[in-house]
Amino acid sequence: MIDKLRRIWPVAVSGIIGFLIAAALILPQVYPSNQNIYRIIRERINVLNQIIGYVNHFYFDTVDMEKIMDGAFHGLMEELDPHSTYIPAKEQENITELFKGKFQGIGIEFDILDGFITVISPVPDSPSDIVGLMPGDKIIAINGDDAYKITKTEVFEKLRGRKGTRVTVTISRLGTSKPFDVDIIRDNIPIYSVGAATMIDDSTGYVFLRRFSATTEKEVVSAIDTLLSKGMKRLLFDLRGNSGGYLEQAAAISDQFITTIDTLVYTLGKIKESNQVFKSSKNKGNNDFSLIVMINRGSASASEIVSGAVQDLDRGLVVGETSFGKGLVQRQLPLDTGSAIRVTIARYYTPSGRLIQRPYEDGNDLAYYRELYETDRESKIDSLKELRPKYKTKSGRTVYGGGGITPDIYIPFKSSINIETAKVLRSPKRPFFNFISKFSADYKDEFNSFNDFKNNWEVPDSLFNSFLIHLEQDSIDVITDSLSINLDYISNRIKSELAGSIWGKNESTNLRLLMDSQVIEALKHFNEADAFTKSIN
Q: Is 382 labeled as catalytic in the residue annotation?
């Protein structure tokens, strides 16, 4: 083992030397100007060599050197700021796929339920969708190999693959007498940024954006065009929980709403390449509808760029909770091992000049993230508002920098569900999904349209009682009387799952919005949002 570690160290040390030199070249200002950065690097590398030698000679147990070195890399990046990070090679592939917006495989959203790969939904227009896989289908074998109690990692390894290659899955489907094989040809699978796009009522559209990836602008434009064709006059643009993504995509989405020639966002860094200005395009934006942007404490980075531009340029109303407060721009740089670093290269500023980065203490990421979850977070922010730097929007309204985007109208999230209902909702067994998978076939032919279903169908008592039986059979222990208190919520969830099974995610989301307290409150403020549109026109 010692010989093996000795063979690893030169490579590890070489990697760290390269890493430190790169960090030194990127961030020399972390040291006083009268110090010699190269001398400091030399000294620290010597110390590192000593530490490795001591560990090799004295440590009593075997050492996972790869894990130790990864820890050193993480520690180095954490000393810079909360958003500079080291990404091990094994994590890098998944992150790249997420933001490129596609991967190659069969195209299913799945979970492991009762030990089996269970199709939650096929990705639209994917190979799985084309061959007719359905929500609730269980994949019990892959290429003839039993898939019972398979891990999610193994699922990715077996179902993903190069475009044009074939995989045979054995399907167990409710209502069929025996399992059957399906041959699927792998293809490019899109990872959608738009989580849902639907009409809340005859004039109000709703778009939920999950992330800002390479395909986001194209998806959002398509969603808005579809809603406009259905009569949309006002849009609720939901960025809650959207942690960000590509800066260029954030600017492009902002540009979809801005019709004047203005700066959308700009960045300032140490090197020339880090300084960018993104301006709106004269013929690109659309002001044919009034706009409300919804944010919460999970809305970060690119989400704050969009909401900041909308607010500073008086295009619409920003409602919800004060956003995350991430005003730093990262660039991802590849490393020889297949890993990468994501290093902060600039600060970004909203059109009025606001830096919305929250204060942070180097190396204390725990406190930085814990602050988000304080129950009185909004009250503290409000009490310190007068101490924060003030800026003016295009029309002269006061907005605040120094810690996230402060909404024009504060709308807290209020949950009406009790502990027992929350237990069912968060159960890893997905009881709502599993229950509806069994019943959806019985209802699919009952409705002429989604609107008929939404407006006229109610969950019968018999179906609710069957759901309670399902919970018992699935060994999910609950207090039935407590669930009955939340009958409206549970019925809505059953109905939305049924809508999703019959029509898809947009219809499922449409029904869930009826129980979303922030959405319900936001809809009351379109009169204020309308005023912005009128002032532009």
A: no
